[in-house]
């Protein structure tokens, strides 16, 4: 009986560990896919010698503290606007909603956007776009900020995993790509040490 009682006490911890392992596996899959994309001549933003020398992106150690459950509030009757890009061009977006979450017991909010151009493409109808900046920019990560790909949630919560944050293509090739500039209100006054690093790219 004592062994059974002990096992019952351990079950929640075993389940939690299995959940962590699954999440870590998903993040590693994201990393593998991103590396493969940059090695693919048809998808990579890299050109010439940079492409030839590319091996893999450097990543922060996976940290599940940067996988947050956010309260998500949809913006009612959003007004389309033109988001400025790195080339000076503008692209049409709407503010789809606002995500509020905590990192290290401090509450932050980020605006989530939807591209009106991408929305019209098959397979991207539910795609959402999260551009953000934080205190690692210009040091361990790209000075212009990072992006996270999301999909429209079914309820009032949204998972934001900063471990899947990445640099825009124009961070590696400013000549061929025009990338949305992170809105000023999407700055996080905290070091988000998660996702793809930039300072020591393996070129």
Structure description:
This protein has 203 residues and is of the alpha+beta class. The chain contains three helices and seven strands. The protein has helices at residues 2-39, 48-53, 116-119, and strands at 67-74, 81-84, 90-103, 106-115, 127-132, 146-151, 157-161. Strands 1, 2, 3, 4 and 7 form a five-stranded antiparallel beta sheet that branches. The protein starts with a helix and ends in a 42-residue tail after the last strand. Residues 6-15 have low confidence and may be disordered.
User: How large is the count of helical segments?
Assistant: 3
Helical fraction equals 10-25%
What is the terminal-to-terminal distance?
60 Å
The largest sheet is: 5 strands, antiparallel
- In the predicted model, the low-confidence regions spanning at least 5 consecutive residues are 6-15
């Amino acid at each position: 009986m004592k062994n059974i009682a002990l096992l019952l006490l351990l079950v929640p911890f075993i389940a939690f560990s299995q959940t962590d392992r699954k999440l870590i596996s998903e993040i590693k899959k994201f990393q593998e896919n991103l590396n493969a994309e940059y090695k693919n001549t048809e998808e990579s933003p890299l050109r010439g010698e940079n492409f030839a020398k590319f091996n893999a992106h450097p990543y922060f150690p996976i940290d599940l503290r940067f996988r947050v459950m956010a309260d998500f509030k949809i913006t009612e009757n959003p007004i389309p606007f033109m988001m400025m890009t790195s080339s000076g061009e503008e692209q049409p977006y709407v503010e789809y909603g606002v995500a509020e979450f905590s990192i290290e017991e401090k509450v932050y909010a980020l605006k989530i956007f939807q591209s009106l151009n991408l929305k019209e493409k098959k397979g991207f109808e539910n795609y959402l776009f999260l551009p953000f900046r934080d205190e690692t920019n210009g040091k361990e990560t790209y000075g212009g900020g990072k992006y996270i790909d999301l999909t429209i949630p079914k309820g009032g919560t949204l998972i934001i995993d900063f471990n899947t944050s990445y640099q825009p293509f124009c961070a590696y090739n400013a000549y061929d790509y025009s990338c949305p500039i992170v809105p000023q209100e999407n700055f996080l006054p905290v070091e988000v040490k998660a996702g793809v690093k930039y300072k020591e790219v393996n070129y």
